[in-house]
Amino acid sequence: MSFLIGSDFKRPDSEVVEAFTRVSTAALGHLTDFGFPRGLRPVAKCGPFAGPALTIKIPHVDSTAVHRAMSLVRPGDVVVIDQSGDDRRSSFGGTLAAIAADLGAVAAVCDGSTNDVEEIRDLGFPVYSRGVTSLTTRVLSLEGRINVPVSVGGVVVMPGDVVFGDGDGIAVVPADEAAEIAGRLLRFEDETARLDLRGGVRAGTALATLTGADRGGLG
């Protein structure tokens, strides 16, 4: 087999990407069920991030493509790795996290596990994966794909899609919808802040009245 490196992709405007750092992934969860990879968690506590996806697909044990992809990282990118269903191995440990950070990447999302967790924690670089392991991939030069559609946690990720994350998890927004969705999320966050549900309940108004839940019948 061979290695395939797709064409470089168009990155969203920086203003659009920055907007996703000012909203929560849960805000998107109030608007849609789509775009939430299942089973991935932050390796260590990290702040919010957002960036276009640099996608990589590897064949289980061989992480050669991950190493090749480092030369394609641009500042602001999120490294997204599809391990072809192998969630036992790690394809992204402490050294790769440090190199990616040095190159300007803002996070990594791996549909597998992670090693060198303490190094990653000390680095402060956001890495999301399925767990922790000592079993790693190897550089075998078998095959791989870069800048192609991948699947992570049941979500298709295209090169250039906006990936954003926080303590709750990660979410993926299609590149051609990013500007519109960012605007909706900013408006939702502003409206939620103005509504002040906690303050309203403290003032004596029922939560269901504030949210509109009492305007529909049950059963």
TrEMBL record:
InterPro entries: RraA/RraA-like, RraA/RraA-like_sf. Belongs to the class II aldolase/RraA-like family. Its EC number is 4.1.1.112, 4.1.3.17. This is Putative 4-hydroxy-4-methyl-2-oxoglutarate aldolase. Homotrimer. Pfam families: RraA-like (PF03737). It catalyses: oxaloacetate + H(+) = pyruvate + CO2; 4-hydroxy-4-methyl-2-oxoglutarate = 2 pyruvate. Catalyzes the aldol cleavage of 4-hydroxy-4-methyl-2-oxoglutarate (HMG) into 2 molecules of pyruvate. Also contains a secondary oxaloacetate (OAA) decarboxylase activity due to the common pyruvate enolate transition state formed following C-C bond cleavage in the retro-aldol and decarboxylation reactions. Its cofactor is a divalent metal cation. Gene3D superfamilies: Ribonuclease E inhibitor RraA/RraA-like (3.50.30.40).
